[in-house]
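Notes from the pairing session

We agreed to fold both candidates in a single pass and log them together. This is the raw record for the first candidate, unedited. Please don't reformat it; downstream parsing expects exactly this layout.

Candidate A
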Amino acid sequence: MEKDDLLFYNEYEQFYLMAKDSEAFKHFCRKAFGEDFSQDGFSDVSQVDRIIPFIPKDKKAHILDIGCGNGKLLGYLQKKTGAYIYGFDYSGNAIKTAKELYEKDSEFTQGCIGEVDYPEVKFDVIISMDTMYFAPDMSAFVDQIMKWLKKGGVFFTCYQEGDVMPKTADENTSVLAMILKDKKIDYDCIDITKESYDLLLRKREAALSLKEEFVKEGNAEWFEMLVAQTDYADKPFDEYKKEMARYIYTVRA
C-alpha cells in the first residue's frame, strides 16, 4: 500500500516531528494526561496503569505495542516493570525517535498492520491504544495477535466508537466485539466513555492554558488542532454518549 493511502499517514509524520521538539506539547500532555506519552488521543496515565497488573513481575516480560508512536508509553511500562519492549508504527519519524530514546532491551520497527510479523507465542502482553482501526482486515489481525501471544498472555486494547469506527449499541456490538465473538474468543470489557468525556474537558483546559506557549514556538496550528479535538465534548454528557463510546477490552490467550 502506498504511504499516502494510509490513514492519517502524512499528518502523523508531521505530528511526531512536532512532538519531538515542542516543549509546549510536552507540557500539554502532562497537564491533560498525567504523563507525556506524546498522546494524540486518550491514553492518559490511568488507562496505561491498567496494563501493569497484566505484566509478569519477573522482569523478563515481552510487551508489544501496536502503533507505538515514539515509544514513550512503552518506555513508561519498561521503567515500571523492567520488561523488554517491542513496537511498530508506520511513521518513520516516530520510530526514529523511539530508537533514540530507548536503546536497551527494545526493538522498534517501521511498518504497517498486516505487514509486520513476529514469531508465535512471543509476547506476554500486546497493547493497542486506538490502533485497531488502522488494520485493513481487523479479523485477520486479531488472528495474528492471538498467534503472537504466549499462553496466558493478554491483549489489551482501548477502542473508541463514533469517529473512525461506527457507534453501535454497546460494548458487545462493536466491530471488534463481534469479531471476537465470531472467533469464540472470550473478553472482558470496561466502559470508560465518561472518563473520556472528562478527559476531553481536561484537554481543552490544558490546551487553552498553553496557547501563548504554543504560539511563541510557532506551533499555533497544533494548538488549534488540540482545541478542535475537544469539540466532541461541547455538549452535555448524556448527549455525548449517544454519539461516542470508549471501551477497554482485555483478552487472555
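Candidate B (folded immediately after A)
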Amino acid sequence: MHDDPNLPVLTPDHPDTEFFTDAAAAVARLEQLYAQATTFLAGQFNQVIRNGKPGARIRAFYPEIRLVTSTFAKTDSRLSFGHVTGPGVYSTTVTRPDLFRQYLVQQIGLLIQNHGVPISIGPSATPIPVHFALAGNPGVSVPQEGVLEFSLRDVFDVPDLSTTNDDIVNGTRRYHPDGSMPLAPFTAQRVDYSLARLAHYTATDPSHFQNHVLFTNYQFYVDEFESYARQVLADPASGYTGFVATGNQIITTPTDVLTPVTKMPQMPTYHLKRADGQGITLVNIGVGPSNAKTATDHIAVLRPHAWMMVGHCAGLRNSQSLGDFVLAHAYLREDHVLDDDLPVWVPIPALAEIQIALEDAVEEVTQLEGYELKRIMRTGTVATIDNRNWELRDHSGPVQRLSQSRAIALDMESATIAANGFRFRVPYGTLLCVSDKPLHGELKLPGMASEFYKTQVARHLQIGIRAMERLRDTPLERIHSRKLRSFEETAFL
C-alpha cells in the first residue's frame, strides 16, 4: 500500500476484536465483518462513479481469525489437521465466509477443542481489493483502467499480485508480515483471485462446486454425466438435489430442459449437487498439463475432499487393449508446468483410500474381480508429457525413459493433477482408459474404436462416480492422509 499521506482514509465502522469459544458464533462474526466491509466498499464505489474522485482514500479490511497458544502439549495425534504444531501466534485472513461456512465451523471447532483456548475474530490489516468486493454483484461493474477520469487505484485498493501467491502451500512462507504464522493454506486475497478465475473459466459460480471433483479430457464423459444426473434426480432417495450446467443453468427434475450455450467456456464444468455439498463436480479440462494446472490451482481454494482424473491415455504395453483401464500408482512427471512449485525430486505417493475406492468401483461396475480383473485393468506408472505429438520426434530418448520408468500409460494431465493434489493437500487419484497404442501401431484414428472400447468408455465415468460415492462415505480424517501433510503444517485442511 502506497498511500498519499495527505489524504484521509475512510473505513467502515466494525465491532472490536472479540474472543470466541463457539465455532458457529465465530463464523457468524466473520460473516458480519465481511458483509460490513463489502457493503461499505460497494456503496462508496457507487458514489465515486456518480460524483467523481473523492478527497479521501476508501478502504475496508478482510476479517481475520487468530489463535494464540503457549503450550507444547500434544493434541489428538490421530488427526492430521485441526491443530498447530507448537506455541505461538497463528492467523489467517478470510473471504466469503458465507461460501466457506461449513468448512470454517469445522476447522475453528477443531482448534478450540484441541487447544482449549478461544480464538479471536476481528478486522485484519489486509485491505479488500474493490474488484473482489464487488465480484458477483450484478448491479455493479468495475470499469477498466483508463475509462474513468482518475485512476481507480488512487482511491481504492486493487488486486496486488505481490501478495497473491502460493508461498504457504509451497512451504516457503513461515511467517506473515506481522510475525504470526499461517493458520490456513491460502490467504483471503489468494482465495478471491481463484474464485474470480473459476467463474471465468468454468462459467459456473464457485458456490456450485461439490467436495468431490472429477477431471476429464473427453466430451463424451460430459454427456454421460448429464445422463446419470437425470437418472438420479428421478430418485429422491439418491440424495442428489440438482444438476448445474454451463451458465449456472440448474435442473432439479429429470425432464427439465438445459439450453445449449453458443459460446462454451475454456473448461466446461457441471455439478451434481447434494444439500451438504457432498455431490460430484465434473470438469472437462481439455488437453494438456497447462489446463490441468490452471483448473487445480483454482479449485484447490475450495478445499475439496478428493479429485480424480478419468480420461484417455496411450497404452504402452502390447498386452493392453483399447478400452483397458489403467490405475496409476506412480507418476513420471515430464509435464514441466509445476517444476518451479514442486521439484521433480518430490515423490507423489499413491493414496491407499483413493486406490481402494477406485479398484472397488471397477469391480462393482465391470462385475470382475481378482485375477479376472487383470484382463481389463493394469496398475502401474503413468507418464505425463507436455508434447502431444511426441511420436513425431526421435523416439529413442522418450521411449527409453518410459521403459526405464516401467510406465504402462502416457497422457498429458494425470501427473499434473496428482502433483497439484499433493502440493495443495487434496487427496488425488487416476483411472485412465486406453484409447490408442502408439508404440504398437494403433494410433488414435477415426473408426478404430471396437465395441469393447465403446462399452468401456461408457463404464469409465460410472466407475469414477462410484469411487467418489464410496469416498463420500469415508470419514474425513481417513481421506486426508498424513502423506499429504508436512511436519510444519497449517492447522486448517
